[in-house]
Sequence to fold (189 residues):
Amino acid sequence: LKALAKECKPNPPWIVGVPMCSSLAAELNQFAKFLDLCADEKLKVDRLYDSVHSIVKEVWKDTTLQKMGPTAAGIVSPKESVIHVYLTHSDDVPAEVQTKLRELAVAKDFQVEFFSDYRGVPCVMFTEARSADRVVVRYGPTAIKAKISAERLDEGIAQKPNTRAVLVALEALMRQNKMLDDTGSNPLA
Fold:
């Protein structure tokens, strides 16, 4: 954004080619539109999601991936895709299941890292080798607790453009100032 901002002075880059915004709400909405994923980026995120879904379905047949956190709120950064999801109907992962997940992931060009998030919920992070895009999957019996907040984020933010625009701006500021813990593993973030 900084390099683009230099080229667009005196206006911010999200205003170029559109009439000047008359209010802060209008500018926040324009900023959110500016950061929205384009069709190619949406396709890339969908493929990433589908690839990880197919891997976990090999281990847990009856599971589904459900969006949570910023992903449930409709926010995925085009620069660094980190998709946050939780698994329904999944168990803890013993060593042999970790090995199977790792083998399946490597076969589809993913790296795998197991950890617990700041709440102690077990997670597996799939990192695509080519793009470095990541999917953080919470699993196990406690992962379902994400359902209520995910539904609230979807209903309260993703479905309300003005509220979503404010969250997009806050997320962008936090990302720019390196205040985000994208994986959810740092309890101090």
In short: The first helix runs from residue 2 to 8. The longest strand covers residues 110-116. Helices lie at 2-8, 24-35, 39-59, 69-72, 95-107, 146-158, 161-176.
